[in-house]
Amino acid sequence: MNKIDGEVAAEASVVKLKDVALRAGCSVATASRVLNGHSTVGAMERERVLAAAAQLGYVPNNAARALRSQSTSLVGVIIPTLDHAIYAKMVSGLQERLARNGKAVIISTSDYDLERERIQARLLVGRGVEAIVLVGIEHHPETVDYLRRAGVTPVFTYTNELGSSDAAVGFDNRHAGASVARFLLDLGHKRFGMIAGITHGNDRATERRDGFLAELTGAGISRREIVVVESRYNIENGRAAMRSLMQTYPRLTTVFCGSDILAVGAIKYCHEAGIAVPGEVSVVGFDNLEIAELVTPELTTLDVPAREMGEATAEALLRLGDKKETAIVTELPTRLIVRGSTGPVSPSGRPA
Amino acid sequence: MNKIDGEVAAEASVVKLKDVALRAGCSVATASRVLNGHSTVGAMERERVLAAAAQLGYVPNNAARALRSQSTSLVGVIIPTLDHAIYAKMVSGLQERLARNGKAVIISTSDYDLERERIQARLLVGRGVEAIVLVGIEHHPETVDYLRRAGVTPVFTYTNELGSSDAAVGFDNRHAGASVARFLLDLGHKRFGMIAGITHGNDRATERRDGFLAELTGAGISRREIVVVESRYNIENGRAAMRSLMQTYPRLTTVFCGSDILAVGAIKYCHEAGIAVPGEVSVVGFDNLEIAELVTPELTTLDVPAREMGEATAEALLRLGDKKETAIVTELPTRLIVRGSTGPVSPSGRPA
DNA sequence: CTGTTAGCGCATTCAC
DNA sequence: GTGAATGCGCTAACAG
After folding, report:
1. What is the per-residue burial (b if ≥16 Cβ within 10 Å, else e) of A229-243?
2. Does chain B have fewer CB atoms within 10 Å around its N or its C terminus?
3. Where does the record place the HTH lacI-type domain (chains A, B) (predicted)?
4. Which residues form the domain of B256?
5. Does A146 touch chain B (CB under 8 A)?
């Protein structure tokens, strides 16, 4: 049985441009021109093509389009892990903003391993991505070079330094770490601990720690009196790290954690061990995740606008695509959210 | 300057199969065969091709491969939102497992809107995905039909019903809801409230609620005595819903929430309002997110193995690709995790 | 076992 | 303005 022209046609298994042209009574070339917005097409002709495409439910074959035009409308993103809300939020913002401009995102994860990141980058290049969004400024020496040679735009997030990328969207981790130190100093703290993320291959963790330490030593605190441990980002590790810290250095009055995840674990340990927060020890987190407001006391933390970072990254990508700009740095504001987990130190040197 | 054979060659801007063949001294067909693991190639020849590919850093052009072979190694996934950890975890498991088999995932979000889901599905088809992972069994009437006609494998998650899909990976939401009811009945509760997710277009929320209600009415509780409100999944809404519930029906002894997100908000409200949990009201969540262990008291909740669901989905997809199976149902275990937010009701009808 | 040939669906050059 | 022809990089027939 033939389809009757004008009825809501049952779509063929795959509608191709040829089918649209056939129905519109023109050549595929014309149909292609219309669908791609090339102005040089008669108004009537254009109408018919558009109508035909709509009726047939035409969806362009991206593989063919990509092969022909060298443009895939695909963006790759490599994050350490999707399990961490801070990255999930960033990807969410990126994906939604990009989708509005017809671009799709392919996601992959490196588990904080720069070598894996490099492999993933190659794979994404094979997939034809036009740009790759990376986290941080520190990468395998070959990664960015490789992207460059492949004509893929590298973009860094979680940093405000362009480095070897075409765009950086983020904030100054070092400054953020320093601002936490400043806040704690102003509260009168003298004995500091830090539970940092694993700094190996992770510039964000490194910078946060170094900014924190620099501010403290600048204030006359001896580096040797500051205890720093590193821990993978999960609650259980945060708890364990806090235990080891407090058992070894019971006189610490405050502990800065490189992530809320760790801070929340730290607070859990304090509960168990009967250590008052902030009475005996003040705890500060980083990221301002939802969990920061769930613990008791609520967590003082540095707010990172993850979703906005994803959106801003998308916008940078879009602008880069217009070729009007060649290098973009978007610095996002961070700010300290003071809640109940921090307090002043009494003149005796113990928290009030 | 010419590249010298044998040195670690600087990769050309884009290395093609032809380049590999050239260097290996064979035809592109042979090179293709080697790279695709077709056994019928001589050992020496295969060696040389492999070596050439490695030295040049050859990465196949997926667009061309896709166009020619109708196989893209691309899987699409449409989830309500990446902001909800339960979906982020699922995607994480899916992505990692698929990556091990050379498949990539394109992600998109529907914001719980079945019409948006339908649009996203079409877009993903245009991208050439071989399968699409959907959440739940309820979809726009055209969505699955469309996928079928386009030759794209539809897979449902968060459900154990095959429906119109080729594979279902998940659990019985109705049964899960019922098991929560059973647990609360056994504790002696008589006055029940529920903060469900928005059930419109969301079979998971609907089933959880219906299973809960069915078990209760089956136990002789009148439907009219059970108070159900619906709320979007975020903490603030959970808090507001709990407020409205407790202010209007102060005699409720227990409230079941369709997600830990809501439950956590509910508990926050109880803290503010001075309502003892579980002394005055028992609260149960759903999902067993990390946040369940962060609130005080810790949350009794139904564990949903989200990451495993993603992994199992990937495996179902892989098996479907082998064409040995044609329909796969994988039911995952859920179990109630009893923590501190629930307790028995005293003979007086109030919680003990 | 290996090379030659012919498209996959589309965007674009070139004629008209 | 519009149509016919070309080829993007690769894989799958087909020969040899």
Report:
1. bbbebbbebbbbbbb
2. N
3. 15-69
4. 173-303
5. yes
